[in-house]
Amino acid sequence: MRIGILGTTLAVALFVSGCGFKGVPDPEVSARDAEWMAQVPKGLDEPMYERWEVKDPTGEEPGTIVVNTKERLLYFVLPGGKAIRYGVAVGDEAYGWTGTARIARKAEWPNWTPPASMVKRWPHVRPTKGGPGNPLGARALYIYEGDKDTLYRIHGTNEPEKIGQAVSSGCIRMRNIDAIDLYNRVGPNAKVIVK
Q: Can you tell me the distance from the alpha carbon of 181 to that of 5, in angstroms, rounded to the nearest whole number?
């Protein structure tokens, strides 16, 4: 039996409303953000990986970032038992990182320098200046354990069609508009849990 587009849309709407999901408006963006994001493919329309306010499933303190790599979801914990849930792409099983750390640095449209281990695997990769062709996308949050850079990031992407997959070299990728939203919410030294 075929449900069709209208039936699927209705089913998703009922699912979302029944689970206490609430849409989260897009953040304001600069003219540069809008121009550069327009040059990146839109990606897939998948309600599972859209940005939603949900009941907090983590039990962590407000301001904490929790990445559930199996679900391909990132939660930013809000006060009052709520969280904002974002769809993400995570590390391929061979390259994933897990642990508890902190956000030590934030950057807008950052330059990207591939780590030596990545260059060894893929000699064709080269450093890239910030912009729409950069793999780090619109924003990057740098994950540190103590004072040591883990070399893992939570960042935007120039491949939004891969959200929901395990495809990166360990970093957590988000749609650029979601990376901007999270960037605007995250405070200094925010706790990050990747599991």
A: 29
Q: What would the pLDDT profile of 83-133 be if each residue is shown by its tens digit?
A: 999 999 998 865 678 999 999 999 999 998 877 877 788 788 788 899 998
> What six digits make up the tokens of 115?
């780590």
The per-residue pLDDT for 161 is 94
Catalytic annotation present for 171: yes
Q: Which of 155, 164, 176, 190 is catalytic?
A: 155
* Domains of the chain, residue spans: 21-194
CA 41 to each of CA 75, 127, 157, 177, 190: distance values in angstroms, whole numbers, following the listed order: 24, 21, 10, 12, 30
CATH second-level architecture of 21-194?
Beta Barrel (2.40)
State the catalytic residue, choosing from 101, 171, 172, 182: 171
Q: What is the pTM assigned to this prediction? A: 0.86
What letter would DSSP give residue 110?
-
b/e map 65-97, b = 16+ CB within 10 Å: bbbbbeebbbbbbbeeebbbbbbbbbbeeebbb
